C-alpha cells in the first residue's frame, strides 16, 4: 500500500485529520488497531471547547452534534457546602462550551469516512515506523493475520498514549516530561437524567467529585479515589453514597441514582513529548501529550493539533511549502504547555491531597475563594476552560 499521509490511530485525532485532509485533496490512509465497535464504545471525553465545535462544523461533521450537543453557559464550583456559578459568556465576552460525547464524535467521523472518505482499516496494528528521517517513511503493520507495509511521504502518529509512533523517535532526539498525581478517577455512566443542568466540580475533604452528563438520558459522574483502587471495592451503592456525600450542599439538592452501565478507573497524569516532529514523522493528540481530565482539555488539544496539521499539509499540497510543518511542533507545544498548566492548577486546587496537611487544605480553599470573589480570577479560569485561541 502507498499513500501521501499515513495516519496511525482512528481515535478523534486520526479520524478528524483524515477528514480534513480528504476535503483538502490530500490522500491518506488510517490504520486502527481495534475494531469499529471497540472505538465507538470507549467512554471518555464529553466537554468540547467552542473551537472544537467550530472545527467539526468546518469539516462538515457536526450534523448530529448541532442537534444533540448541549451548549453550556458555565460550570458550578462546590466547596464548603456552597454553590458558585461561573458564567462563561459574561466572563469571556460570549464564549460557551458544549457537551457531546467522544463516542458520538468517533461514530460520526467513522460513518463519514466509511461512506466517502479515504481508507480506514480496523484491526490494523502499526508495529513500527521505519525511516522517519528518509524521504519515504514506511509503517509496518499487522492486518488480517499478515504483516504488511504502508509506504508514505509523511506519517502522523495519532495512536494515543500507548501507541507505536513515539517509539520511532530516537532517545537522543526527544524528551518526555511526566508527572503522576497521587490519585485516580473512578468514572461511571448511569442511565438516569442528570441531577442538574450544570457541570459541577466539587471540592470535598473526602476527595473531588464531578457531575457531568450524556444527554438526554445519562449522567456521567467521577470520584477521586486512591491510586491502585480496584472496581471490586466499589459496588454501585458505595459509589452513589460517596457521590452524595461529596456533592451535598443543602436540602434542595438531590443526586438522582440509576443503573450503572459503565465503570472504570483512570490514573491522573501529565505527559508531554518534545518535540512533536522527527523528520517526516509527526505526533498529534494523546500520542504527544496527556493531561489530567480536570480541565477537560485532552480531546480539545487533539483537535487543535490536527487543525494545525491539516493547514500545514494543505499548504504543502498547494505550493510545496513546508513552512507550517516546520513550525508545527513549536506552535502546538505553546498551547500544550498552557493546557497542561491549567489542568494541573485545576487538579491541585480541587483534589484532596493524600499526604496534605491542614495548611494545604486552607490554600485550596483560598484559591477557590479567590475565583469566586474576584471577577478577574474567574475570568482567567473561564478563558482557559473555554479554550485559548489557536497560536496562529
Ligand atoms: P485516542 O482516543 O486514545 O485514540 C488513539 C487511537 O489509536 C489506536 N492505536 C493504534 N492504532 C494502530 N496501531 C497502533 N499501534 C495503535 N495504538 C493505538 C487506539 O486504539 C485508538 O483508537 O487518542 P486521540 O485521538 O489523540 O484523542 C485523545 C482523547 O481520546 C483524550 O485526550 C480525551 O479522551 C481526554 N479526556 C477529555 N478530553 C476533553 O477534551 N474533554 C473532556 O471532557 C475529557 N474527559 C478525557 C476525559 C479522558 C478520560 N480518560 C478515560 C483518560 C475523561 C476521562 C475519564
Ligand atoms: C465528561 O463529561 O466526561 C467530562 C467533563 C468535564 C471534565 C472531564 C470529563 O473536566
Short description:
By secondary structure, the chain is an alpha+beta fold. 36% of the residues lie in helices and 28% in strands.
Query: Rg to the nearest angstrom?
Result: 21 Å
CATH C-level category of the largest domain: Alpha Beta
Q: Count the domains.
A: 2
Number of strand elements? 20
Give the strand content.
Answer: 25-35%
Sheet with the most strands? Answer: 8 strands, mixed
Bound ligands: 8-demethyl-8-dimethylamino-flavin-adenine-dinucleotide, P-hydroxybenzoic acid
Shape: globular
Low-confidence parts, pLDDT < 50 over ≥5 residues? none
Spatial order of strands in the largest sheet = 6-5-14-15-16-13-17-20
CATH superfamily placement of the largest domain? FAD/NAD(P)-binding domain
Proportion of residues in helical segments? 25-40%
Oligomer: single chain
CATH topology type of the largest domain:
FAD/NAD(P)-binding domain
Helical run tally = 11
Features:
about 400 residues, alpha+beta, D-Amino Acid Oxidase, Chain A, domain 2, 2 domains, eight-stranded mixed sheet, six-stranded mixed sheet, 11 helices, binds 8-demethyl-8-dimethylamino-flavin-adenine-dinucleotide, binds P-hydroxybenzoic acid
What does it look like?
This protein has two domains: 5-70 and 101-178 and 269-350, FAD/NAD(P)-binding domain; 180-268 and 354-386, D-Amino Acid Oxidase, Chain A, domain 2 (2-Layer Sandwich), CATH 3.30.9.10. The strands form four sheets. It has an eight-stranded mixed sheet with strand order 6-5-14-15-16-13-17-20. The protein is globular. With 392 residues, the chain is of the alpha+beta class. Helix 1 (12-23) links the parallel strand 1 (5-8) and strand 2. The chain has eleven helices and 20 strands. Bound molecules: 8-demethyl-8-dimethylamino-flavin-adenine-dinucleotide and P-hydroxybenzoic acid (PHB). P-hydroxybenzoic acid binds at residues 45-47, 199, 210, 212, 220, 293-294, 296. P-hydroxybenzoic acid (PHB) binds at residues 45-47, 199, 210, 212, 220, 293-294, 296.
